[in-house]
Amino acid sequence: MSKETEKGRVGSSFDDFLKEQGTYKETTEQAVKRVIAYQLATAMKESGINKFEMAKQLKTSRSQLDRLLDPENDKVTLAALSRAAKAVGRILRLELQ
Known about the structure:
97 residues; 5 helices; mainly alpha; 434 Repressor (Amino-terminal Domain)
């Protein structure tokens, strides 16, 4: 093993692979949306809030809430995600790296 190779790592990272394929940005964005949708659905379940109650708290329709929770929908606004997080007693935190 050379000094340049980290112990336990061989080859490039998955991020490097995605960058080489030209899909890093879209893959990362989709992964973030999936995680947030999953976290919201989990928080709703933990809080005992069903979709009807959640939509009522957000002053929106159930179909609009379904779009918010859809991991494939990338048209969700930060404001909508923030309101949804507050409705389940959480906060939305974003950061630049």
